[in-house]
Amino acid sequence: MSKPKVVVLGAGLVGSVMAIDLSKKYEVTSVDKDEDVLGKLQINHGINIVIADFADLDQIKKVIFPFDLVIGAVPGFLGFQLTKAVIEAGKNMVDISFMPEDFLELDELAREKNITVINDCGVAPGMGNIILGYHHERMEVDTYECLVGGLPVVREWPYEYKAVFSPIDVIEQYTRPARYIQHGKMIVKEALSDPELIFFDQVGTLESWNSDGLRSLAKTMKIPNMIEKTLRYPGCIEYLRVLRDSGFFSYDLVEINGQKIRPIDVTSKLLFDKWKLKPGEEDFTIMRVVVAGKADGKNQKITYDLFDRYDKETSTISMARTTGFTCTAVSSLLLEGKIEEKGICPPEYLGRNASNFQFILDYLAERGVHYQKTIE
């Protein structure tokens, strides 16, 4: 019996890790326009490769035609149109692109094609949604809070931060208005608002702020209080506000010496090298998910804590592990016919199935990504 065929669109730090992980069980092809990165996957891991430009959607539709499942690992600004193209091609998909558009708008098209598309299937959004989905099915939830951050172990001036995703996607967190639910109403505040210092045993005190991470949860979950906050080293909010309010993150064209440019493009170009992880540089991922409400008529607070570090044995960064392995776990469930939902299936829907929820936790634990659960 032949192995299922999987194609991974995007061979960046996370896309490459997913391709390698899936290649242990499935026939995997990695697609990107970066020949050097693809060459390493082919030589070191025996992964099939295709050189292609994601902006050419007709080409991508031809590339994905032979495959059973498409994995999306492209920058957010490409995510919506690429997802739409995959749906039009009639292929199931699991995606981690942090697209600014509302992917739920593609639900009708996906249902017409009788396929399953699971968006935002990373660590957060992603695993936080899955955890909430599981408990929402089993208790009356009134509060959901997700605190999450990926940071370098060594704090290097001035930014004390490293990006494993597209720089523009990271900057989106600093500019996109933060939406959260409070007392049943949608609240909208500017990004970086409501800073708070929070202590974690593993790393000490970190700084949190409102970020726009609820995504689909704001529509799919009728819970009176829901919020996601981003974690960084203390002091980052001040310099980010200076950059943002000075216009360095603006998409509006400005004219310089007769040339019109977007400040965001210049800023991301400059910061990419500053934020790039050096070979062997270690990072960690920290996340705390709190679900509170009533179970069997009694108040209950359930907390999931994650602390994951760079894997020295495989030279795999933590954010790629925590994001990528969540996606590959869900991809395995879909390939094995364990996910029956059709249309756009946000990750919170996956958690409703207890066996699938446990499969994802076990899959992550087998790869060293452990969620510690406590109940109060």
How would you characterize this protein structure?
- This protein is α/β, with parallel strands linked by helices.
- It has two domains: 5-123 and 317-375, NAD(P)-binding Rossmann-like Domain (Rossmann fold, 3-Layer(aba) Sandwich); 127-309, Dihydrodipicolinate Reductase, domain 2, CATH 3.30.360.
- The chain is 34% helix and 28% strand.
- The protein is built from 13 helices and 18 strands.
- The protein has helices spanning 13-22, 35-45, 57-64, 76-88, 107-112, 127-136, 167-175, 217-220, 236-245, 263-275, 318-335, 347-350, 354-366; strands at residues 5-9, 27-32, 48-51, 69-72, 93-95, 116-118, 140-152, 178-182, 185-189, 196-200, 204-210, 225-232, 254-256, 259-261, 283-295, 298-309, 343-344, 371-375.
- The protein is globular and about 50 Å long.
- The model has no long low-confidence stretch (mean pLDDT 95).
Set down the secondary structure blueprint:
Blueprint: E1 5-9, H1 13-22, E2 27-32, H2 35-45, E3 48-51, H3 57-64, E4 69-72, H4 76-88, E5 93-95, H5 107-112, E6 116-118, H6 127-136, E7 140-152, H7 167-175, E8 178-182, E9 185-189, E10 196-200, E11 204-210, H8 217-220, E12 225-232, H9 236-245, E13 254-256, E14 259-261, H10 263-275, E15 283-295, E16 298-309, H11 318-335, E17 343-344, H12 347-350, H13 354-366, E18 371-375
Parallel strand pairs: 1-2, 1-4, 2-3, 4-5, 5-6, 6-17, 7-12
Antiparallel strand pairs: 7-15, 8-9, 10-11, 11-12, 13-14, 15-16, 16-18
Distance between the termini: 48 Å
Question: Poorly predicted ranges (pLDDT <50, ≥5 residues)?
Answer: none
Q: What overall form do the CA principal axes indicate? A: globular
Please give the share of residues in helix: 25-40%
Helix count, per DSSP?
13
**Number of E-type strands:** 18
> Compute the gyration radius: what is it?
20 Å
**Second-tier CATH architecture of the largest domain:** 2-Layer Sandwich
Query: What percentage of amino acids are in beta strands?
Result: 25-35%
Q: What's the number of structural domains?
A: 2
| Largest beta sheet: strand ordering | 3-2-1-4-5-6-17
Structural class estimated from helices and strands:
alpha/beta
| Mean pLDDT over the residues | 95
At the fourth CATH level, what is the homologous superfamily of the largest domain?
Answer: Dihydrodipicolinate Reductase, domain 2
Main sheet overview: 7 strands, parallel
Q: What's the CATH topology name of the largest domain?
A: Dihydrodipicolinate Reductase, domain 2
CATH class of the largest domain: Alpha Beta
